[in-house]
Amino acid sequence: MYKPGAFLLLLLFSSVCVLAQQKISGIVVEKNTGNPVVFATVQVKDEKSTLTNANGEFELTVSALPAHLLITHLNYAGGSFEVKTTGEKLKIALDPRVMTLKEVIVGNPAVTIMQNAADKALKAYNKSNFGKAFLRQIAYEANEPVYLNEIWLDAQWKPYGLTGWYPTEARHLQGTKGISYTNTSFITFILSGYLANSFHQKPLLRKADSLYTFKLAGTYLQDGEEIAKINCTPKRELKDKRFEGAYYINTVTNNVLKIEGVIKGMSFKSSGQVSIKNKETEFIAQYRLNKQGDNVLDYAVFNSINRLKMPGAGVQNTDLYTTLYMIDDDSINKNNLEKVSSNINDSNLVSAMTYNKDFWKKNPGIKRTEKEQAAIEILEKTPH
């Protein structure tokens, strides 16, 4: 029997469901120049967060409007912004932080700052942080997309790198030509820490200046605390897998906030008659405090440009772009985690997983750039 009251209740319930998922999007730029602010954290209070992409763009689903967005970036003065409607693309401008170089009368303060950071980090060397992580890898050969991995995974992270993982959702696309990118995720995982490990000698060591020289580039204030930028240069005896760039250190808490620079001495193994020579590898990683007050991974970027030589194909560039983003989540099943290893065939593992189109529509990770989206569309048309 038809009941008008029940029909009205159903309509009201449907309206609530529609309103419960609001998608907001926008772009974050630098004030005055209008340049995109890359890898700014965009978060709604007590809800999920995301990063801006290479064009400064972001996209985020919120439970209700109005919503208060918190935008943060180590090199910019962030802020809180209220969003009342989803009708238009937001444009948020941030002021760059001004760095000053303080006068130094005696000694090298950079060595002291790095040693203090190393001493604190080493105390938490084996402390695990568990959470959800998003990994996106995309490769181009001669500017044509040939490989894509997008993975949501349960993860275990320690100050020297991501040590355990378990993929929960994945999409894998592989072109018919070119090389096979097997276990390239391992490099990003193992480099994501701020401490040195057996794979890579970063500047944070028990004796910090044993393999690197340090110079204070400048300081600025963030929330009333001093942030120091320390330029790190490897000494002559350090030839293999070395870092060259800058560490950002909070001199009050001695926490590492960010690393940016290049990885020198990288090499990639290849099979058959293919030879690969690394030309340049850019590395950026940022860290944050979790709810327990531990300094943990926020995101890591690993972009590698290589020269590929194949019989019959000549010499061409092969570019691999990787972003790893991690959020806290205590609900993951830690028993499922597998040890991160250099011989895990991640390509086979994720390509065997069932692609859940509905999941990826709701959980894109980080908003794709037009180039990334075009690459996916090209690869999707490739016969598999």
Automatic annotation (TrEMBL):
| SUPFAM superfamilies, A to Z | Carboxypeptidase regulatory domain-like
In the UniProt record, does the keyword Magnesium occur? no
The record's Pfam families line, in alphabetical order, gives:
CarbopepD_reg_2
UniProt keyword Signal present: yes
What span is annotated as the signal peptide, if there is one?
1-20
UniProt keyword annotations, A-Z: Signal
The domain of life is Bacteria
The molecule here is called: Carboxypeptidase-like protein
Q: Write down the species.
A: Pedobacter cryoconitis
Q: What is the lineage of its organism?
A: Bacteria, Pseudomonadati, Bacteroidota, Sphingobacteriia, Sphingobacteriales
